[in-house]
Design goal:
The complex is a heterodimer. Chain A is mainly α. Chain A has helices at residues 2-35, 43-74, 79-100, 102-125, 138-159, 164-186, 188-196. Chain B is an all-alpha fold. The chains are: A mainly alpha, B mainly alpha. Chains A and B meet through helix 1, helix 2 and helix 6 of A and helix 9, helix 10 and helix 11 of B.
């Protein structure tokens, strides 16, 4: 169990680093936009800038989704199996990236995460005891599953932005899952009282 | 404009309200300084009364703004002479045929009216600071620590002072909006001039002033800004003292802030698609918002492990960085060009 806890902890630390890197890229994008005067350029130049920024951020988004891909089975599997699954996912991402490019690699990890997260969501909905969550309580687990599913669908949505109908449908699904997820995760107490009419089953104290 | 709307009355009434708010804030500043320096808490009951009064006056001022916007809705329809409506509708039909999101045609029997949200131009600061005032009041009654309360009050006083001296929403209200629409209401214009003004004003009315997203996207972000300010104060105190109650309050507001920020940012997305088309991604404001969201997510993730050695301080520092990222994101609109710019 100690190993499991530190695994969670290091995953969070790596996620922190990736989010920090994305923040730095965003900062770079802002200053580049200003000093290259992108807003005054013709639409093809703007498009070029957007594509360039997408290319820069793509590896970090893959990392983030990959971390999520590891984070999700962590809830399902024992540490030994988790290491194996992580190795398999990582190999598949690298091989797909080399053979078919970054986009295919991102699509692969998104699809894999989507499938895994859907399984977790179903298990969380069924109240399965086999899921390993840092926090306890039915609604918190359900909320956490929904937030992570929302993030995966959001990136998938950005990936498919050229198909307008699918794009907007996926966007509203993302919004719905994220809102519900945050409500369940952050306000489990109130949700419990509102829906089930019973006392909250968890304590959010960090002690 | 002064002949069409009670602008003078609005400015005078609002001016009085702001003066009262400033005096009350002066009182709370004195009390905050005394509590910050002194060893024992002083004037706690008087401070509570002052804080409640500040909130009441903030709400009164907000209702005053609501009334003024209602006056704009009633008294400033975007009206055209009847013989122009046919020509304008033909132009709108041509514009709609090339666009995914069309504009409604002009109806002379029911001309379009401005439904201006309550948080544009300087009013956004008023709403933002009012949200903070409400939160400060709630936190004030939850945590009795004298120095924590003092800092909470000082932040409020600084915001009220800023509102009075720098971004007064009552004195010369909505200058940009009135500057835009004034030419339409000038007397003695030719028909083509009127049509030209209408065609310039109508799209902005539809996609900006009357946009339904305008009622969700900005206020959710301002509520989030208020929450982040509370989170910042708690984070600073967490660095000084390992107090669980302070952390609990900070986390409560962090959750509210993150919820509002995420929802607000998400609801800006379909609006941006509608108003600007697809080419706005990687706009400086979007970049800085993404950065802020990423920092905020990091804070919430690390908070899960705040009981670990050093993580308590790391979480606190992240809370402070999150506040700085919020200030930076807000100031982005002044310094960086792009779709969100105030330049």
């Amino acid at each position: 169990m100690k190993l499991k806890s530190s695994y969670d902890f290091y995953l969070i630390l790596i996620t922190t680093l990736v989010l920090f890197a994305i923040s730095l890229i965003s900062l770079y994008g802002m200053f580049y936009f200003k000093f290259a005067q992108i807003h005054q350029m013709a639409p093809p130049v703007k498009l070029l800038y957007m594509n360039r920024m997408n290319e820069i951020v793509a590896p970090f988004i893959i990392c983030l989704i990959l971390l999520l891909g590891i984070c999700v089975p962590k809830r399902l599997l024992a540490t030994a199996w988790l290491n194996r699954i992580t190795a398999i996912l990582l190999t598949c991402v690298i091989v797909t990236g080399i053979l078919y490019g970054v986009k295919a690699s991102l699509f692969f990890i998104l699809a894999a995460s989507l499938v895994l997260q859907s399984i977790v969501l179903i298990m969380a909905l069924a109240g399965s005891r086999n899921l390993h969550f840092h926090k306890k309580g039915y609604w918190v687990r359900l909320g956490s599953s929904l937030i992570h599913l929302g993030l995966i669908i959001f990136v998938l949505d950005l990936f498919l932005y050229k198909d307008r109908t699918v794009h907007l449908v996926l966007f509203w699904i993302t919004t719905g899952t994220s809102i519900l997820g945050m409500l369940f995760c952050f306000y489990a107490d109130s949700v419990v009282n509102l829906i089930a009419g019973r006392q909250p089953a968890f304590d959010e104290d960090i002690t | 404009m002064h002949s069409l709307l009670p602008i003078k009355l609005f400015s005078q009434g609002g001016g009085i309200l702001l003066v009262v708010l400033l005096i009350l804030s002066g009182g709370i500043t004195v009390s905050a300084c005394a509590n910050l320096i002194g060893r024992k808490p002083v004037w706690q009951e008087a401070t509570s009364a002052l804080l409640i009064s500040i909130n009441l006056f903030f709400i009164l001022g907000f209702l005053w703004i609501c009334w003024f916007h209602w006056q704009i809705f009633i008294k400033l329809p975007l009206e055209l002479p009847e013989n122009l409506s046919g020509w304008v509708n033909r132009q709108l039909e041509i514009m709609n045929s090339n666009s995914d999101y069309g504009m409604p045609l002009y109806n002379p029997a029911d001309p379009p009216r401005y439904r201006i949200p309550l948080w544009i131009e300087n009013e956004k600061y008023y709403f933002w600071f009012m949200c903070y005032a409400v939160m400060a009041l709630l936190v004030h009654f939850r945590l009795q620590a004298q120095r924590f309360r003092a800092v909470l009050h000082l932040f409020l006083a600084v915001q009220v002072a800023g509102l009075f001296f720098l971004v007064d929403p009552f004195n010369n209200p909505l200058p940009q909006f009135f500057g835009e629409i004034a030419p339409l209401y000038k007397a003695g214009q030719s028909l083509m001039q009127q049509a030209g003004h209408f065609m310039r004003l109508y799209p902005k009315m539809i996609y900006y002033y009357n946009a339904e997203y305008m009622w969700f996207h900005p206020p959710l972000l301002f509520i989030s800004y208020g929450s982040i300010t509370i989170m910042f104060i708690t984070s600073v105190f967490m660095l000084i003292k390992r107090d669980l109650e302070t952390e609990k309050i900070g986390y409560g507001y962090a959750k509210l802030g993150f919820f509002m920020l995420t929802l607000g940012m998400l609801l800006g997305y379909p609006w941006a698609l509608k108003a600007w088309g697809p080419n706005w991604w990687w706009d400086p404001k979007i970049c800085s918002s993404l950065m802020m969201w990423a920092v905020f997510s990091t804070y919430l993730h690390t908070r899960l492990y705040a009981n670990k050695k050093y993580m308590w301080y790391f979480t606190s520092i992240l809370g402070i960085i999150c506040f700085l990222a919020m200030i930076f994101t807000f100031l982005t609109s002044f310094y960086f060009p792009g779709e969100h710019t105030f330049q």
